[in-house]
Amino acid sequence: MDASSSVTQLLHEVRAGDRSAMDRLFPLVYAELRRLADSFVRNERPGHTLQGTALVHEAYLRLCGGAPPDYQDRAHFMGIAARIMRQILVDYARRRNTGKRSAALRAPLDEASTASVDRPAALIALDDALNDLEKQDERKARLIEMRFFGGLTAEESAAALGLEVPVVRRELRLAQAWLERELGRNVSGASA
Question: For the chain, what are the domain ranges?
């Protein structure tokens, strides 16, 4: 059995309620989760308290807690892991930003999606905009999350969501334009 089918089988076991399957799954996806986490925290200063390893382990704890999602395959699992890592970073940024008065920062989506937790306002502004997008169009929000936070390609996102690749690409372009406009609006509204 190849690694991909092993992961898929273990995800089905997790979905069926086998809690020990997550423990067997974790070593198979650890390197991929670590690369994902490192992409989230790559802009951090050396010695920052929130490192990739800590982010992976915190995500693992959250993945193991509660009822398991309906994991479809590796891409779907990585999309969920990316969402959890994003939420961990946003929670961390919100805690760091508590008590500080700061306006949302205008930043292009590419820059905001890799916002360092040393710039919590940018990360919080992006998270708020993504939450607003999710209320309007959940699929577009998931696609942005998969692409910019999960590092999934259009093909992987299409497979995870059961969509055609051209549809994914079009939806991503529309979602990016919407987010760019929202992030710009937050700055305009904050300075008025």
Answer: 3-191
